[in-house]
Write a structure and sequence with these properties.
Chemotaxis Receptor Methyltransferase Cher, domain 1; single chain; alpha/beta; three-stranded antiparallel sheet; seven-stranded mixed sheet; Rossmann fold; 11 helices
Length: 279
Amino acid sequence: MALDFGISPAAYDYISEVVYKNSRIYLGATKQQLVSSRLAHRPKAVGVKSFDQYCDYLHTHKNSDEIEVLVDLIATNHTYFFREQPHFDALAAQLLPGLLRHVPAVRNGLRCWSAAASSGEEAFSLAISLSEFNRGQRRIDWHIYGTDISRRVLASARTAIYAAAKVKLPDAGLMARYFQKGSGPYEGQCRIKAALSSNVTFIQANLFQAAYPVPQPQHIIFCRNVLIYFDPPSQAQLIKRLYDALIPGGYLVIGISDSLHGIQHPFDNLGGGIFRRAN
């Protein structure tokens, strides 16, 4: 017997179709509970009484902000500082030295893209890692671009303010070097120092839009724990586009939950979720 999550099969199918069309997020046939939970308040918010009526609303308001709200609520934005730490270790030990050897001009302007930046923790983790790499001598000028489909989480990222209790760093000294602790109304929060955040730009983007709003080619792209939300054809399309967005010799980093298994691609697989575009 099918479980009743308050959403009819027809409504679920229609919402899944709208989400896929506007984001390529593939919900499949078994995410009724997730959809009904995350969208529980949206019918009332747009003035209707059921998910079936909500679908009618979406159909008649195809150019409304509600489509963006819908995708935002369905998208998963789980992140934290230095998530999957080995990738940041590899950045300093492998990726940056490799670029300096094979692409010497990178010293004058490294471009790094956090392609699913969410609320900014990954982009700022990259910024901290690059700044640490440069400590003692200015070896690389760099800029990081963080993109996400959600304007809501990007608005949070641009504040560069985080709950101090949730900022877990691999070295205690990083807090003093790169964060300001809040006081008064900001007690218990911390903000990325301007010297660091000024080198990070956040831009709203859909990974499947016609053209990416970040400078190309990029030297390093982090696109982690994203592929799992797309169907195989979309995964293949995205990987090709990211390959094309990289400089020869540049690196793509995917998440521990992602895989390029079954996807034809020209990357060199360096292991650990790290791929290199051939020279």
